[in-house]
């Protein structure tokens, strides 16, 4: 079994994906342990010296002015975890929770939290043995970090709460016993260190970024197929146009579409037609898809930075021998990144829905109404378009930015919050809707190509057509199209692979 050694600064999106989904073994780098022990020793020394440290010998939030005796430290940390475990709603999925666990271990491994290596090693033991804490999705406002969901994670380490283990939800104490993992007793500020940070919104954001990367390319493929089915012109994608407005996303999409439609017999068939310009949903694909690519790239950069950021508070600086309180736990940058991603995804769905409508409108496409073989007797893809329209409209509501919302909490001490988890969950739902709408566009576009036979499209798009036809036959009569939509989504990886012969990036 392959292994990965965390050291607080070496995570990438690809590594996170592999650990979250493939259950790669994770260990703590040996060189990191020394730094962690030095940090913990500072905390212990400051405790003995009577130095006031937030969360070590004080209350929390508005109660930070309340001094706590050293003899009550263990109770303080355990009380914090229990009281903050107030999440509600459905639990995060296994890959999401594994990503959260990994990211929390990574932050603590950086050595700025004053916790023992034992805390990280126990977290990694849970991860490696797939003891998955039950973490409710709702309850974080995204400042002081993701307190409520991370408290549910911390409960597992002390042998409380519930977990998923061997496909069953059971008490954490039982799962730890079965997995031969000893619960920890929290010392110093270890309770606070386990819950102060942005790891929930970062884990969700990372999953969104990874899934969107594939969707962006699939959108280019689907739009090229729709263009061909509607006898649209590829000349709007000519490189000469886009060098004059050199946004990176726009140039990449134009390059993709130009290559996807290269050597198309359909393009050659209407070389001398009298159509001057296509509708914006075709002619402006590079500008619209490209803008979404650029927004995704910005969001990706934010997430990549956060993977290896220290978001605890307060922070222990060993060499300088001091402790500083700050606000690295605040999730505003992530909340805004996920809002930008939501807007980008909603925009892709909007233009995809317009292309679907064009495919089904005979006055524009010249194809049968709703792509039905027997118009009137059969409804064709009429309602598939309605579904796409419904999802596009839902996305417009979901794309309202969470990052502009805030609500004071903790006795008005935490008076500006980010709503980062809200933003990430909304982006996740929009992404799911985008996958459904893209499947509908591919279904309609591939059917449109059937009506153009015996003409053939480009070699690359013909490979895509062949892949689709392996699982989804041409529409010759009305059938239950929801099944086709679901089947099309399962084909996404294969469609990508068919188009990845240096013809598209």
Descriptive account of the structure:
The structure is a single chain. This protein has 21 helices and 9 strands. 57% of the residues lie in helices and 6% in strands. It has 2 domains: 3-197, Fumarase C, Chain B, domain 1 (Orthogonal Bundle), CATH 1.10.275; 204-312 and 342-499, Fumarase C, Chain A, domain 2 (Up-down Bundle), CATH 1.20.200.10. The protein has 505 residues and is mainly alpha-helical. The relative contact order is 0.12. A hairpin with a 2-residue loop joins strand 6 and strand 7 (168-171).
Give the tally of structural domains.
Answer: 2
Q: Architecture of the largest domain, CATH level 2?
A: Up-down Bundle
Q: How would you classify the helix and strand content by structural class?
A: mainly alpha
Distance between the termini: 32 Å
Number of strands: 9
Q: State the oligomer.
A: single chain
CATH class of the largest domain: Mainly Alpha
Total helical elements = 21
Look up the CATH topology of the largest domain. Fumarase C, Chain A, domain 2
Write down the Rg: 27 Å
**Share in helix:** 55-70%
Q: What characteristic shape results from the CA principal axes? A: elongated
CATH homologous superfamily identity of the largest domain: Fumarase/aspartase (Central domain)
Beta strand %: 5-15%
Low-pLDDT windows of residues: none
